[in-house]
Amino acid sequence: MLTVRRLPVILHYALLLGYSIWAGGFLYRTTVIGIDGKRYFSLFDDAMISMRYAWNLAHGQGLVWNAGERVEGYTNFLMTLLMSLASALFSKRMAVCAVQVAGIAFMLIASLLIVAIVREVMAQQRLTWRPWYALLASLCVLGYYPLSFWSIMGMETGLLTMLLLLSVLAALKVTGGGSTRWRIILALAMSAAYLTRMDALLFIVIIGGYLTWDAGSRRMPMRQYATAIAPIFLACGAVIAAHTLWRHAYYGAWVPNTYLLKVTGMPLPDRLRDGWGFLSFFVPQGCWAWALALPALAVTLSRRTLFLVAFPVVLLLYQLWTGGDPWPLWRILSPGMPLLLALILLGAARVWDHCAQQAIPRSMSTAVVGVLLAAAAIALYHLNVAFRSEITFQERPFSVQSNSLYVNTAVALNHLLLPGGRIGVICAGIIPYYTDAYAVDFLGKCDRTIARLQPDRSGAVCMYRMKSLPGHNKYNLRYSFTHYHPDFAQQLSWGRDRLDASYGLTYDLYNYRNVLLYLRRGSPYLRSDAKAVFLESR
Prior knowledge:
Layout: H1 7-29, E1 32-33, E2 39-40, H2 45-58, H3 77-89, H4 92-124, H5 132-142, H6 145-152, H7 157-175, H8 180-196, H9 201-217, H10 222-228, H11 230-251, H12 257-262, H13 268-279, H14 282-299, H15 303-322, H16 337-357, H17 362-384, H18 388-391, H19 400-416, E3 422-425, H20 430-435, E4 438-441, H21 448-451, H22 477-484, E5 488-489, E6 493-494, E7 497-498, E8 507-512, E9 515-520, E10 533-537
Parallel strand pairs: 3-4, 3-5
Antiparallel strand pairs: 1-2, 5-9, 6-7, 8-9, 8-10
Helix pairs in contact: 1-4, 1-5, 2-3, 3-4, 3-8, 4-5, 4-6, 4-7, 4-16, 5-16, 7-8, 7-9, 8-11, 9-15, 13-15, 14-16, 14-17, 15-16, 16-17
């Protein structure tokens, strides 16, 4: 029989089920019907770069983008290994689907972890746990669209968020007198987070500072600290050192190629300028959440709540320092948002308990908390309002239209190019993954020479009030064309650079089943019987 006591539990399960159904619909809407009539699954294009690495690893070529070339063009080692497991078990198309399903699982697990975090903080602060809090806490994860987008679109954001929340929960358990098991979980979770993304080192620093602060406040003897806390970070340090040594042995570099591409060569003032230009788009969306989080922090002020808010604050500063991001869906900021929203929930719980302790009439205290939660709902609305058409399936998700073009380009190339043909790409994920051809990355994610160039700071490659776009501002088409002679070129220009007659190459624009392709004139790898319509030369 349905009772008032069981209603919150039932609604929580309904939320998890409803989210799973919605996520399944979202996944379906990211699929593409190719010009060959087959349904293709597609991730965000950068995630498909990792899928190509994963596919090559699973099929004996090594963790490489092009067979025989060792360049670390990914920044998500652990996610790439998980992709390789899917690649070993499924076909190319279904491996992509498996990664998307895993992304949904990451979101569901993260929603349960945030419930456990809220409950742990409330227990340590002696706040009353109410059944409705589980439902509201899960919304802190499942109700934030950018987090779902990146997770289901195959980026490491969902995995990283899950590992971050597990690390936060374990750290709270350790400071609350948890068993040795939680210390082991903390070490494993932080190490896995670092292997997922190198910049998770920031999370490790925050957690280390929190544990040290807690130990100092309790006047923990140095010997006890050395035996209880230090081994956690020694284990993480060992993992970091081992992975760095492996990277140097395997790729011949101490840092990923993508780090050189995105960070080096850009002066700090320029990065800060572009970072602020990028974040200025986030301010209208996030101001309500931050406006509620700060009073919530004030009424719940403690080491634990400062610990929670440290993550979104540091991620904001980190996004500023890196000079922004090419896409306005807050990929870097998303892992910290559930903790910011959870802080608002903790503030409402503190107010509710205070009203109860002051013998304020129940109707009045309920009204006060209701107003706070309504304000939180408004904050969540503002965080998602820019994406409402995608959330409600009125529009297909961001990048799916371009994914359709890339998939059909790959299908066309599979018919037009003979084995041994080379493809030159600006978007280095979907087209190389679905063709298996040797690929030339014009923007340098998988090209050491391009990654070490000075970035174009002229404003020729700009977006979102940013003068220079990270990861897209280093290029040299003369080098890429004359050194590799690609048989297909996705584009013949980028920024201030474009193909000209001095390169000694001519590309004809073909129309193959309504897919436009630049193919090199005279290429021995172009099928002579290919039924493509020549349009023009460049």
